[in-house]
Amino acid sequence: MSSDSVILLETVNFAAEKHRNQRRKDAEQTPYITHPIGVARILSHEGGITDIEVLQAALLHDTVEDTDTSIGELQIVFGQTVARLVQEVTDDKALSKEETKRWSTERVQEYFVWAAQVVRGLRGTNPALERQLEELFKQRGVEL
Fold it and tell me: What is the reported pTM?
């Protein structure tokens, strides 16, 4: 097995252990771990992402928000880069749960405008993903 495969398996195992008692809010109450695995798969298959640290961060992205995992623990186990990536996509725990989950139409639109600015700044790094995002932004009336 390649070292990248071993790294990803260790990361999946860590995330699965952390999320082991959590269920999705769907009718079937599927195991929560299907969500981070799905995010990593989308990045890999649809986005063409092969960077192991990005895929690790995708697998770990909800561990700090939804489990007893800390950024410090991720740094020790997976390194500074992975921990930093996870931190970038983690809700601010200083805000109330209600505040972080407030998701009005206006807030969603503000998010799309912000995300378009981020994508503009990263132009040329992943043309396939950029095309998909451009279509999504068009649907929301946001220009890239």
Answer: 0.75
